[in-house]
TrEMBL record, chain A:
Pfam families: SoxD. One of its GO terms (biological process) is tetrahydrofolate metabolic process. Signal peptide: none annotated. This is Sarcosine oxidase subunit alpha/sarcosine oxidase subunit delta. GO terms for molecular function: sarcosine oxidase activity.
UniProtKB/TrEMBL annotation, chain B:
PANTHER family: FAD-DEPENDENT OXIDOREDUCTASE DOMAIN-CONTAINING PROTEIN 1, SARCOSINE DEHYDROGENASE-RELATED. Keywords: Cytoplasm, FAD, Flavoprotein, FMN, Nucleotide-binding, Oxidoreductase. Its main location: cytoplasm. Residues 17-61 form the Rhodanese domain. It comes from Asanoa ishikariensis. Coiled coil: none annotated. This is Sarcosine oxidase subunit beta. Its EC number is 1.5.3.24. It is found in: Cytoplasm. One of its GO terms (cellular component) is cytoplasm. InterPro entries: FAD-dep_OxRdtase, FAD/NAD-bd_sf, Rhodanese-like_dom, SoxB. It catalyses: sarcosine + (6S)-5,6,7,8-tetrahydrofolate + O2 = (6R)-5,10-methylene-5,6,7,8-tetrahydrofolate + glycine + H2O2; sarcosine + O2 + H2O = formaldehyde + glycine + H2O2.
């Protein structure tokens, strides 16, 4: 099981968290102005790297706050320096 | 001298078609390119050993009882090919049509199941709705007590569904493709592409560059990595998917049982081990391993449904890397690069599609346009919105 570093609670068992996928995917500021391809890209396309990945977690059974981490998708290790 | 099922050739300078990935899909694609289209100047490049990826790791459930017309058509095409595959490849792949139950544990499950049975029948797919008593009759060891937190309220049943021996399927396709002249090249990782404007000229590999008129991606969980080398993005997330087997036991279960609600599925292999699996680990991962609590929760579900499993021992757990798409349907067809084709997104359920996907993909590559059964699974469905939403509609995978 992963030990997920919550920036507010410290490292806790993975079962306390929900996974939120890629970080820094902002909701489009003017959705109606997007082409179909741009909207599809916002809805469906996410990075899927083999290596370091900036991603979101939600501490659902703890402080109930979202945060971003950088995790390696092969070794599963978390990079130091968790950002809220 | 040992008799090998296939040769281990040095790569040639170039091929008409280079298939990337020697899992079930890559091997079947190469076989049907040669058999159906006379295209035999083909290489299948594999970074590891032949069929050591998901093909070696899956739980071998084969069925075609999907909800939507497009899915029913391609999976039923595949099931029909399974029915003749041992003869076709002259190799007993232990295809066993023992039937698959999909259990319902709530009123929404019941409604979804009955709807799916009706949809299946309209598509010529065998399907029945069973009451809890009928489930109990078919699988006496199942706990149908209505006292359970999530009692069995019925099940869909596809009698023609079943399992097969995954390694034999891979070896049978490999031997048959080899006999038709296909080169199977192991320990050959594709790391890049030789570009020529909107086309590729070949692939860069750990064993040198290999030219290609056409390139067919068949890399399952690693497809995104190849696509990013090619400069386009795919709607895929790679996840660990785990499974487990028990020690060898007396035969107690001759039907495949799946429960999506309490989430476990189980069959008993020919040798006697119970084979179980459930859902993916939530996070993206290429590590071919997942978290133990995922195994724990599928075991809890299995013991609830089958109390006699409580004393069985887990022999082994493992994981593969599955390429999950947003609508739980595959992506099969053309790509933004003119002579590169894609077959991916089968996620947790592509073993059953091995013959069908290989057949349809080979035809797509041979003719440079989507086979009619592949057309609904084109990449542009994510732009048009014409999803084939097997996740939302049926919540059934594997
Ligand atoms: C635990 C588990 C249980 C499953 N259960 C079922 C089930 O019950 N029923 C079902 O229908 N499906 C099931 N699946 C899904 C099924 O296994 C896959 O959808 C299917 O095997 C994918 O096609 P494949 O066989 O070609 O993939 P793979 O066998 O994974 O083949 C892809 C190949 O590409 C190679 N490759 C990747 N990158 C490169 C590169 N750069 N260069 C060269 N080679 C490369 C890999 O090494 C690999 O051998 C399960 C999967 C898992 C992991
Ligand atoms: Zn917290």
């Amino acid at each position: 099981m992963l030990s997920v570093p919550c920036p507010w609670c410290g490292p806790r068992d993975e079962t306390e968290f929900k996974y939120g996928g890629q970080a820094h995917v902002a909701y489009p500021s003017d959705p109606a102005a997007l082409s179909d391809a741009e909207w599809a890209s916002y809805l469906f396309l996410r990075d899927n790297p083999k290596g370091w990945f900036a991603e979101r977690w939600f501490h659902s059974a703890g402080c109930r706050r979202w945060f971003d981490v950088v995790r390696h998708t092969v070794t599963y290790e978390f990079a130091p320096g968790v950002t809220p | 001298m040992t008799d090998f099922l296939w040769a281990d050739p040095e790569p040639e300078r170039g091929y008409d078609v280079v298939v990337i990935g020697a899992g079930g899909h890559g091997l079947a694609t190469a076989y049907y390119l040669a058999r159906n289209h006379g295209i035999t100047n083909v290489a299948v490049l594999e970074r590891g050993w032949l069929a050591g990826g998901n093909m070696a790791r899956n739980t071998t459930i084969i069925r075609s009882n999907y909800l939507w017309d497009a899915s029913a058509a391609i999976y039923e095409h595949s099931l029909k090919l399974w029915e003749g595959l041992s003869d076709e490849l002259d190799y007993d792949i232990l295809f066993s049509q023992r039937g698959v139950l999909n259990l319902a544990h709530s009123l929404p499950d019941v409604r979804e199941g009955i709807r799916r049975v009706n949809a299946n029948r309209l598509n010529g797919v065998d399907a029945e709705w069973l009451t809890p008593a009928e489930v109990k009759k078919l699988v006496p060891i199942i706990n149908t007590s209505q006292e359970l937190r999530y009692p069995v309220m019925g099940a869909t049943f596809q009698p023609r569904a079943g399992i097969a021996k995954h390694d034999y399927v891979a070896w049978a396709y490999a031997r048959a493709a080899h006999r038709l002249g296909v080169h199977l090249i192991q320990n050959c990782e594709v790391t890049g592409f030789l570009r020529d404007g909107d086309r590729v000229r070949g692939v860069v590999t750990s064993r040198g560059t290999i030219e290609a008129d056409r390139v067919a991606l068949c890399a399952a969980g690693h497809t995104s990595v190849l696509a990013s080398e090619l400069g386009f993005r795919l709607p895929l997330a790679s996840h660990p998917l785990q499974a487990l087997v028990s020690e060898l036991l007396e035969q107690v279960l001759d039907t495949v049982v799946m429960s999506n609600a309490i989430h476990v599925y189980v069959s008993q292999a020919h040798k006697g081990e119970l084979v179980m699996g459930a859902g993916v680990d939530a996070y993206n991962g290429y590590g071919q391993r997942g978290s133990f609590h995922v195994i724990e929760s599928q075991m809890a579900a299995a013991v609830e449904l089958f109390p006699i499993f409580a004393r069985a021992h887990v022999l082994r757990t493992w994981a593969g890397i599955v390429d999950v798409s947003p609508d739980a349907s595959p992506v099969l067809g053309l790509t933004p690069v003119e002579n590169v084709f894609v077959n991916c997104g089968w996620g947790t359920g592509g073993f059953k599609a091995t013959p069908g996907a290989g057949w349809v993909y080979a035809d797509t590559i041979a003719h440079g346009r989507p086979h009619p059964l592949a057309a609904p699974f084109a990449l542009d469905r994510f732009t048009t919105g014409a999803l084939v939403d097997e996740h939302g509609a049926a919540a059934v995978a594997h």
